[in-house]
Amino acid sequence: xxxxxxPAPTPGPDVPLPxxxxxxxxxxxxxxxxxxxxxxxxxxDPWAAGFLRxxxxxxxxxxDGPLQRLLPDWAxxxxxxxxxxxxxxxxxxxxxxxxxxxxxxxxxxxxxxPTGVHVFEVEDPALLAFKEHVLDxxxxxxxRRSTVGCDPxxxxxxxxxxxxxxxxxxxxWLCETHLYHLQPHAVESIVGTMTExxxxxxxxxxxxxxxxxxxxxxxxxxxxxxxxxxxxWHWQLAEPEGWWAEHGWDARVADLFxxxxxxxxxxxxxPLLTEAAARCVFLTTGTLGDAR
Length: 292
Known about the structure:
Elements (H helix, E strand, L loop, with lengths): L22 H14 L11 H8 L10 H26 L4 E5 L6 H4 L7 E6 L1 H11 L8 E6 L7 H6 L8 E5 L8 H13 L6 E8 L9 H8 L8 E2 L2 H7 L2 E5 L6 H7 L8 H4 L2 E8 L4
Parallel strand pairs: 1-2, 1-4, 2-3, 4-5, 5-6
Antiparallel strand pairs: 5-8, 7-8
């Protein structure tokens, strides 16, 4: 069951977080918690509020620009997009699902998985321990869930295989927000391992920062405020389809404003969204190419 403990005292902005936790993960949890209170939520995450209480965390992304105001709703539509991607991939034959840099992701517990899905969560051991405390023996909705306690930015391939990943079977990978916080050489290593462990029919999903929009008046003030907290968007792409093709994957970027739930939720922000602002990140998915 979700954590129902009494809320912890509200911390100041500089209070240290529990070991392994990042503010990025908690910002997403905050968006999910608010969403869960809506009459018809796009994301149903009953554990999100418990994560916030257990961490003694309140607040959101730094600064008060238009991008910061949009981010909670953006986090919700991004989650919804990748929820649908993963369930579709599983129903199409990817019964192994790997969440790289899983953070406080509860998809193993809240999605309507087909029979026989094995969800692997690769994340820092301290964060996984915090997460297990809040989940409090909740039962997954997938067939099997395995946590892989190691640095998701480091060498994790052997640990994932030891946890039961079968590289002969198709896998659906998700790096929801993990990659763009890393240096490009680390991303190259992660994607190389992902490709190496993928059988034909495997798929991936990853949010990618648009290098062409990072210096725009919409994005740059947020990146400056973010940098002051010690967080940066290091990995940025100008042409994601080309980059992923060079690494063995046939990629495509979603046209978000063809998705009704995106249009409905982001409609209040449309006056703020120039074409560049509307494409400041790419929600990217793809399949393993025929030739690697």
